Amino acid sequence: MDFGDNVWRNGKLIKSEDAKTSLMNHALHYGSGVFEGIRCYKTERGTAVFRLQDHMKRLQYSGSVLEIKMPHSVEDLCQATLEVLRANKLESGYIRPVACFGEGKMGLNPHGADIDVFIAAWAWGKYLSDDPITVGTSPWIRIHPRSLQADAKINGHYVNSIMSSQWAHNNNYQEALLLDYNGNLAEGPGENLFVIKDGVMYTPELGTILNGITRATIMQLAKDELGIETVEKKLLPEDLVNADEAFFTGTAAEVTILKSIDGNQIGTQENEISNKLKNLYADVVEGRFAKYDDWLSYVN
Ligand code: PMP
Q1: Domains of the chain in sequence order
Q2: What is the pLDDT of residue 217?
């Protein structure tokens, strides 16, 4: 896989082949880092990054949860991202900022380890399918909010997502769905969930899920463009089984419609509202909707 020729690391652009780390990197042993996943799109005005500031703010927030003293401001991280995109000549793709405890310290208290911050960017197409997907309920529950801080994007949390993704793959589902510790619907391994019933849109309330930037985008588009308010509340597995439509949202997954849950087809699969939102989202991220241009950071 080609991960781009250049990477920004600790304040400067370097060749990816020169970006090395020690085997004694703290995050490599314990997952003690935070990260983001951001997409950039080809638009008529050149490449643009979607909601760049919001992603960098969440990176800073996640860093603060893990007591990573970020040596760069949100604005510096945004500029650095645009620098990498220009250097790698990316038209569209995926951006991965990471801030972690690096070298210089072992043991579970990371204080004293170097802080390593980098931003990589490479071409990455569809994460899930463009067509509706089959989903299975993972036997692994989403991390308990009193074990870990569920709304921080901490590397180590993602073992929970990895195990669920592996389970889905091993059981011939295209993606997993995780319940929370009370048996309520939570989210996918890297996606938030929406269900639609009788024209009303629902999504699991915050608390055990990541506060997704695509989730917020879709709630705003549904309200402003379709006049549909989203109800954020606790939802049960039955709410998904009996839904008229359901979809996942995420930076990587964008809007991915669910075809079935645990082998049961969801609704009639006409997916009228979901398809409208999927198309609206594509229009916004690809710069065809002037009203939402503030969400785009143009590379040039
Ligand atoms: N939930 C989890 C667990 C995720 O990893 C992601 C991807 N960041 C999402 C939801 C969707 O978040 P966003 O829309 O901000 O990409």
Answers
A1: 6-122 (3.30.470.10), 133-285 (3.20.10.10)
A2: 98
